[in-house]
Amino acid sequence: MASDNVLMSIEGISVNRGLNRVLDKLDFKLFQGEIVALNGENGCGKSTLIEASCGLLLLREGRILHQSQKSLQTLVSWDGKRQQLRPFGLCLQENSTTGEETVLEHLSTACELSSKVVLVEDLLSILDIWQLKHRANDRVGMLSGGMQRKVSVIAALLPAMVSDEPTIVFLDEPDDGLDIQSRQTLLMQMKSITAIGHSIIVSTHDVSILEHADRSIEWGAKDVSSKGKIPLSNFTCKALLSSIDSNSSSIYKKWISTQENRIKSSILNGAMAAALTILTLIALNPPGIEGVAGWRMWTGMILLPCFIIALIPGPERILERSAVGHWWAAHSAGKYPNSVVIHIPILGMLSTLLAVLMIPHANLPNITATHTILLIFIGGLLCWLVARVNLYLWVVHRWLHRPRQGAQLLLVMMVFPWLLIVDGMGLIATEGSGSESTLMLAGGFGLLVAINAILQLLRRA
User: Fold this and answer.
1) Taking 60 as the threshold, does the pLDDT of residue 365 lie above it?
2) For a Cys staple, 160 with which of 59, 62, 68, 198, CB 3.0–4.6 Å?
3) Do 236 and 101 belong to one domain?
4) Contact 217/226 with Cβ under 8 angstroms?
5) Is 340 in contact with 314 (CB distance < 8 Å)?
């Protein structure tokens, strides 16, 4: 068979789960237009193979290649390097929805990750087939477990439906929780997708899916075997749904902002932390807020709330729900999350203004409007940079192939640049802008920028 019909090539991969070797020097090729079923007992390695094929697991040996631009290119290799190739569909064992999204929003996101925008009417027609049209605008969290599973399955099938190039769909026990009619719908849609040249790898215990598979990989007591025949047809791929091309570079930023606007977790948590910090500082009413030392102490109190806000877990923690984070990591080659929502620096600026108005400074000279504006700007910038460090440390801790346990303890280091900025602003208040104050401010912010850059390089390594 021609090499351009190979959509995925697995070359001698070995994968561990903990200390156990689950896959050992496995070789496999996925061809265009076929359904390959993974069959075996629980824990034999079916999910491991699917997750490895998407670049979610560290390989001990070998490499996995996907077809991209008419040739096979390495998606992930044993040294942990991943790259983003052609879009694919993915349904993991756990659902990929946050619960806060509406059904249509999640399906639209799945299409946009494939750089496609599909009309709402077309998405509604797909939902109608799955008997979900009447729940299209409901939040996924309000649906039953079976309905939520349907949404995750549809989202996995959509990248193939909107593509006119051969696309792989990975389904890990998609029939789990589905009723008989929904399983028949799943099988029908799988057959229609592969009939036009896309390919599906499905892990299942469902007999009807196993019977309709072109090939199967079966885990026995001692070895892994392959059964069935490779389809010999020459396929001409075409999209089942009409769509227009779009830029997927900002899709995560749009998605996480929508989630934050809906649940407002970081706003509420940050506002509460800032309010408690300010009220505690007022209640303590520390003595000695006068002179040069007083300016330094007061400036530190003013810039403390925005610093605390930046250390509060941000909206990216929503990625810890079910398989949401793994779903995004697979589709983006681990590039997301990559940005801090705009609410955080704005909240930092507002908390700084509130601190200026509420924290006593009667024994200090009158604060000029220029100094207040500078403090507010510094508070927003400080909040944004520290929040980015917090985000990247969380990514290093949670989503890298080799997670660094305790990576977020490095946040303690953020106290040093914060102190430099406090000293710099205190000198500006007492002595005016000069070389020493400028050096301190530049040193503090420069250190934060450098830490951000190092973590960016680390997460891409």
Assistant:
1) yes
2) 198
3) yes
4) yes
5) yes
